[in-house]
Amino acid sequence: MAEDLKISDRIVIPAAELRERFSRSSGPGGQGVNTADSRVELSYDVERSHALPDPLRARALERLAGRLTDGVLTIAASEHRAQLANREAARARLAALLRDAIAPPPPPRRPTKISKGAHQRRLDSKKHRGALKQLRRGSHD
């Protein structure tokens, strides 16, 4: 299953830049749990990759800084009993993570001012609430 990983229409990570490791998974598996290496660790070297253009690589390195170990992003998948299903899950998770990391930043927020009518409605509501509470107090003779 050594095929390229499609991140977006323009960005494809070649299979040569992905590394897979397999190990025994904990959890469900019945008799095959001790014999099948169904857990998958998918690693991608973001720092040294040639698939990402320089500005996107810098953005990904900045956004994924907490998840990288020496510039390498590692995804582990062990939720399925079958190795093939775990490989597909790891690849899908890696693609989604990279897609989010290289996405352009949102446009800056344009500060707005509250309207005079909304401000007055808020003050009227507060006065009304205060008046209700004042009526509940009663006299303390």
UniProtKB/TrEMBL annotation:
Keywords: Hydrolase. GO terms for molecular function: peptidyl-tRNA hydrolase activity; ribosome binding; translation release factor activity. The keyword Hydrolase applies. Residues 11-136 form the Prokaryotic-type class I peptide chain release factors domain. One of its GO terms (biological process) is rescue of stalled ribosome. Residues 99-141 are annotated as: Disordered. Residues 110-141 have a biased composition (Basic residues). Belongs to the prokaryotic/mitochondrial release factor family. This is Aminoacyl-tRNA hydrolase.
